[in-house]
Structure formats: C-alpha cells, structure tokens
Amino acid sequence: MFDPKQYRVSGLILLLFVQKDELEKGEFYYLGKVIPIKDSEKQIEMSRKEETVPVVTIDFELEYPVPFELYQYLVNR
Questions:
Q1: What's the CA gap between 64 and 68, in Å, rounded?
Q2: What's the pTM value of the predicted model, to 2 decimals?
Q3: Which of 61, 74, 3, 72 is nearest to 32 (CA)?
Q4: Tens digit of each residue's pLDDT (9 = 90 or more) over 49-69
Q5: 61-64: long-range contacts at Cβ-Cβ below 8 A with a sequence spacing of 24 or more?
Q6: Does the pLDDT of residue 17 top 70, yes or no?
Q7: Distance (Å, whole) CA 43 – CA 25
C-alpha cells in the first residue's frame, strides 16, 4: 500500500494522466509528475450503491504547472 509519509525515501515516481470526459474513449493527457502534499491524507466514507466504503484521499502537487492552452482545453466543453 502507498504510504505518503515514506514517499520521498521510496524513490517512487507518480505520474498524472487525465481524461477530458468519458466521451473521449482512450484519450488521456499527461500532466506530469505529482508529489503528495505532506499530511494531506484523510480517510473518508463514500456511498457506493447501497453501502458506505472507507476511502483514503491524498492531495498532490504538480511538479510543473499545466500549460494554459491545455488547461483551457480540458476544462471547457
């Protein structure tokens, strides 16, 4: 299991790919390397069908900003 507290010493590289929407089947855009933000992990509960399941969320920071043109393309319909 991923331990964000050990990330820096593990040598693990995390890469972020996003999909604009589900209509673009197979189209993913590489946004770059991400680094977990220290102490950002939280355990929450989410509804899934008729049950509640525990989920861990972690905030990440991109190594470099997303180019403006790509950002505009991804957020606009």
A1: 12
A2: 0.71
A3: 61
A4: 889 999 999 999 999 999 999
A5: 61/34, 61/35, 61/36, 61/37, 62/16, 62/31, 62/32, 62/33, 62/34, 63/32, 63/33, 63/34, 63/35, 64/32
A6: yes
A7: 31
